[in-house]
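Render this sequence as a predicted structure.
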Amino acid sequence: MPLTRDFKQTVTERVRREPAFARALLDEAASLFLNGDPATARVILRDLVNATVGFEGLASATARPSKSLHRMLSVAGNPSMDNLAAIFDVLRRNLKVDIAVRAV
């Protein structure tokens, strides 16, 4: 029987080991939101939060309840723009990146 690893554990370990991978996930989440795939973007953000600041840390940084943040970043979540901006801001600062939009 082949050995398998939990996907979320693999993502968490890679984010912690490779900062460029974490930045790429944040970039992908932003691109997905801007290009009309918010459900996938929320799942990526959820994995990124779990791998970096954690939901309790995000709750402290955004002054929003952890349970609400979990719901916002679920597949069926519906975060307001204010909440989404706050989440991106915390992740952006944690990963030490700036987000800029460029037309292609």
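Summary. Residues 19-34 form the longest helix (16 residues). DSSP finds six helices and no strands in the chain.
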